[in-house]
Amino acid sequence: MIIQEFEYILKDGRKAIIRSPKEEDIQGMLDYLYESAGETDFVLRYPEECTRYTPEGEKVLFERINSSDTEVMLVCIVDGKVAGNCHLAWNNRIKTGHRARVAIALLKDYWNQGIGTRLFQEVIKIAESNEQLLQMELEFIEGNTRARALYEKMGFRITGVGVNAVRLKDGTLLNEYHMIREIKR
Question: 102-116 pLDDT, tens per residue?
């Protein structure tokens, strides 16, 4: 699914562009994946695990998502750099087609600029426009209070916990909290 590009102003006055990913974003997305993986323990990959991401793979991913009617990715570009992205996906199955999965991440340099809120506003509009969807779902890792606050602000609530779902390099085990946002029409 392709979303038309639009611009808006960040809290610090910089211009941001939100749109579907394009081929020109491939290297920027690879850089973003690597950088974001090293900034926090709350992303589900370490930088060294990013070697599986390739320009060819990102091109195929972008083409698949952009041509899909059950998936959308939004990228946020600031000063020519991928600052973050948000992904929404669902399926057409009878039993589970009412549920959409959400994933979002931002580079640390772009925190507190309203990007997460704006990306969520856009994917919520997409979900609300699809009569099949009844709820949006996501997870956050124990200790990620910033993400939890954003998700709750956007109408999500905790519905369960995956005990010891994440294991850090140092052996620390963290819970993963499941959240949903019921779609209001």
Answer: 999 999 999 999 999
